[in-house]
Amino acid sequence: MAEASAPPSAAEEAKQSGTAAFKAGRFDDAVAHFTTAIEADPQSHASLLDANQCIKLAPTWAKGHSRRGAAYATTTGRHVVTQGSLFEDDLQHGAIVAYEEGLAHEPDSAVMKEAAD
């Protein structure tokens, strides 16, 4: 008898929904789903990989850069990162750079302005 696979996690379901929305050109919906995925599993490296892929496909789409910033910012809160370490500084710097790049494409984004500060 074949073993049933485990149902997808909330993060995986949100990621799949985000991918489908992105492919359909529903970018605001995609951001909402990807944000849910990041919040559901902030320790997933997939969040950063997804953001990088999003930027590769649509480099001037500000929300892709915002997702990258959120992925970096979330990573700094992980237990494996020692507070005050150089690695943590690099992640914080990566988040700020990502938000600043997003602001270059969408300068009125209150979310990215606040996150970059």
Overview of the structural elements:
With 117 residues, the chain is mostly helical. It is 69% helix and 0% strand. The protein has one domain (10-116): Tetratricopeptide repeat domain (Serine Threonine Protein Phosphatase 5, Tetratricopeptide repeat). The protein has helices at residues 10-23, 27-40, 46-57, 62-75, 86-105, 110-116. α2 (27-40) runs parallel beside α4, α4 (62-75) packs antiparallel against α5 (86-105) and α5 runs antiparallel to α6. The longest helix is centred in the last third of the chain and has 20 residues, at 86-105. The protein is globular, with a radius of gyration of 15 Å. The N and C termini lie far apart (56 Å). The model is unreliable at 1-6 and 77-82 (pLDDT under 50).
Features:
117 residues, disordered N terminus, globular, Serine Threonine Protein Phosphatase 5, Tetratricopeptide repeat, mainly alpha, 0% strand
Please outline what is shown here.
Helices cover 69% and strands 0% of the residues.
User: How widely separated are the two ends?
Assistant: 56 Å
Mean pLDDT score, rounded? 77
Computed over alpha carbons, the radius of gyration is 15 Å
Number of domains: 1
Q: Shape, please?
A: globular
CATH topology: Serine Threonine Protein Phosphatase 5, Tetratricopeptide repeat
| CATH top level class name | Mainly Alpha
Q: Are there runs of 5+ residues with pLDDT below 50, and where?
A: 1-6, 77-82
How many beta strands in the DSSP annotation? 0
Biggest beta sheet attributes: none
| CATH architectural designation | Alpha Horseshoe
State the helix count.
Answer: 6
Q: What is the N-to-C succession of helices and strands?
A: HHHHHH
User: What is the CATH homologous superfamily assignment?
Assistant: Tetratricopeptide repeat domain
